[in-house]
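Appendix B, example 12.
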Amino acid sequence: MKVWIVTDGEYSGYAIKGVFSTEARASEFKSAGGGDATEEHEMDSWQDDQGSWDFAFDRATNQIVSEEQNANLEPASDRARAYTWRPEDPIHVTVYTANRDRAVKIAAERFARIKAVWEDAVKASKMAQFDCGYPNGFILDIAEVMAGIEPPPEPTGSMHSNFVRKALGL
């Protein structure tokens, strides 16, 4: 059985606003101002092989400096996401698989692709900061687009979308 979850916000501002039995009800709730995105999930989809690994990579040494295994409801999909807070902080890569060896391989590949374009992303971010006056550079988001990991954000009008698009010259 599927459920549709209406969410709002990003990162630390992310929140689930409602869970619905049909896509139509979720869409109606979202259209009435209940949130800004809809996610589709399977009910009771937990499997023994589900989980994730989070690896923190030091940019100077390219080494994993910490790792953590988490149990979660995310289906094992080998999907990865990267995050960091400040330019001097490690780059974290979370991989949604319970298999550690596979997770290390995927995380290291993602980190290497980001690291290869990191300095160009920093420069693009600084130029966009100068032009936009926005203090937070979204360097990682810019790097993932430059490395071909993620597509450029759609021109939604959000501060994030505008900033990343400006940094990329879009």
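The mean pLDDT is 82. Residues 52-167 form one domain.
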